[in-house]
Here is the input.
Amino acid sequence: MKKNLKKTIRAAKKNAQKVAKKITMVQDDSIRRRKAKVAAPKPEKKSKAKSIIPTLSKPKHGAQVLPADLTAAIDGVKRAAARRSSLPVLGTLQIVADAGQQRLKITATNLELGCWRYVPASVKEDFALCVPYEIAGLAKNLPADQPLALTVEDKTATMHLAQPGFSASLKGVDAKEYPLIATGKSAKIVQATFEFSREQIAEIVARVLPCAASDESRPVLTAVFLNVHHGKGKARDVDFATADGFRLAKLTQNLPTEITDPTPEPVVKKKTKKPESEEVVTQEGKAKKPAAKPVYEFACLVPPVFFNEALKIAEEDQPLIVQVCRVNGQYIACENANGGVTCNTVDGIAPDYTRIIPASETEASAIPLPLVEVRSALKSAQVYAALSLNTLKIGRAGNDVTVKSASAELGEFARAIPAEFAKGKSAPADGFQIAVNIRYFDEALRAATWQDGSKPLALLVQTPATPMMLKVGGFTMVIMPMHIEGERKPSGNIKLQAVSTATPASAPQFEKEVAADSPKGMDLIAKAKAAVPEMSCTCIKCHEVKDACRCEAFVPDLESQPFDEPTEAADDLPTVFEINCAKCGSVNEVREGNSAVCQCGAIVDDKGAVIFEQEPEPVMA
Here is the structure.
């Protein structure tokens, strides 16, 4: 009994010793681990870079930019803004920060025109956000020499603006919702590439764009007709033309051009006789006639706003590359270090404007125009012409050029300017007089003498009822005359006939040709006008009524449509501002988003800022 008890006690002690050893081992191991953890060096914490942006909270992205640079960039793209669009995102500006280039890209588009500008900035990390245009109003009222901090919160799509003593926030739209803007790099097909200098773009703006129509009901006439002539080598002759129904301007420039995809069909609708081509006999014995050569190698219709915006980004010492591309539709684009412009071309067929330009200058008579004296006379005549449908009369009296204007309320104005007329048929007859819109004539003088007012200028005329023309080098402007009741007499033989089946039975029917200037002819014209009021709307080229006109160049006279009476609704008229030129201070009428040529020769925008300067012209002492 005692032996069994002793064995049990010894076994219990051995087990207790084993358990104590295990507990000691576990405790020693935990102690060693703690000691090793304490002895191990702590990892250094990465020090966060100090934020360069004094903001209210910790932002994810940020940049710093001068308020003056930001304001200038927004003003440069505002022409493409779509304030009243059904898509809210088009009423915002897309701001994209590029940390690699250290700049901001400000973009605006209305799906027809897209503009973007690059702004130097200090960018910490790339970001993109669409913000309202009100950011321009905030930036204008801040000190221009202190950087403006821009921070963006992606979760809330909010941009914070901060400066010492100033803070604001703008709720934006995710940049992914902004439409993609097509550029020359993203084009599937590049049809044509042109290389412009800044002076060449300025010449297009100053000489060609003033004649573009403003009536959106005929989009073709609001565009610039760009036509590339056939040629060999890199340089080609390119025509730029505009016409609004009352005047036409055409400018030819020699540009480095590359045509990679010629126009399949000419944009300009030209009615010409089919050339008689020789028959070619093939091996099968069949005769084929070669296809007629197109009038132009390439042609398209470019909205004038493209040239206005391209002039703003063009540089003096670097050429501007302009590309006509096609993705889903045709568009024209250009880009450089300052920014870029892209614009959809106009769909349609342009009229054949070459038929309006007189084919031969030898048949025309020249009225010399002493530039300084004529411009001085126009300023005085404007007072009277403003009250008489802008009517101005230019003619010859002996060896003087006469400038006349009259108003029933004020009276009459007349000035005789000594000039040297050529002898023979190249000079108009003594007493010749032609009427013209004074505003169109003044703009024609500015365009013809742009950057070079030293060359002699002459007004080419034929009759008081035919178009007049100014031609200087590669620039040509044609102006339709105004019809003054009682002064124009039809010439040649005329044939009067009913204008339509709706003519009253009492209207006289004339089948026989009579002399228009004979008493019988004048009596027949008077009876026809009295019987059919529509016959008073006659063509100033062939003197026929509208439906009887066969010259296909019908232009109504002032009895039916005055020059200054708008045909479109008042709500659709473009906004016109009276802007003081920043260079000379003179007042200019500028349509919203467009530019105008000041009398000092500078091109000013709708804010009066000078976007192109030229050498001052001589002024009268």
The CA atoms of residues 530 and 536 lie 9 Å apart. The chain is about 20% helix and 30% strand. The mean pLDDT is 77.
